[in-house]
Amino acid sequence: MTKIVLALIGLFASLQLQAQNIDRTEIQEPNGGSAINIAVSKFDLEDGNSFFEEAEDLERKGDYNEALTLFGKAAFEYNSVKNFNRYGQAIIKMSSMHYQLGRFTDAEQILLNVALKNYSKTGNRAGIMNTYSLLGKVYLANTKYTQSMWFYTQQGILAKQLKSNNAYIESILGIVQVKIKKKDFTLALRDLKSAEWLANSIKTSQYKTQIKDAREMIASKTTAKKANQS
Hints:
The chain is an all-alpha fold. It has helices at about 5-25, 40-60, 65-80, 85-100, 105-120, 125-140, 145-160, 165-180, 185-200, 210-230; strands at about 25, 35.
């Protein structure tokens, strides 16, 4: 694990403690009446939203390093007010910035040690499923094909449980990419046909380009393989 990831995980551990301290901050009335809580949550949430929006703007411009910093600040604010949904979104974005920068190990560690724990704690199964998908993508980019296959498979299992046809198709397409990398072209083509059949059955053209590109890639690699053998 890299130093930056260790620092990040340490940061979020400290955030939990700070959030707890903020929650206990209060002012006592002069005559011993009930406590009056300091209303800081609204401002922290607004700060988080501001950081997040600015980070997204930087992301669109391709300034991933600066975007990463601001997504981290947004995560800090969301965590301090225990808005774990937005916190999870900011964490996922941080992982995505590392991915865009080619820092696959950092992206992997954030997803495993922060994102998954956050979604597991809150019982967000859709969040867990999406994190599995991202882990499949990160491991694929990092040429860790066994791990990539496992996480795409877990995504598919959860997709079935959540009755999400789109997520299930995406898991199959992820597995297809892994099999192409492993040169299991026959198995990849079989899975690709399954994804195409399911997409047609739910009448969506959303994955038409991905399926077409994957089929062309399989065809080109199969042709090249045959040429090398002759």
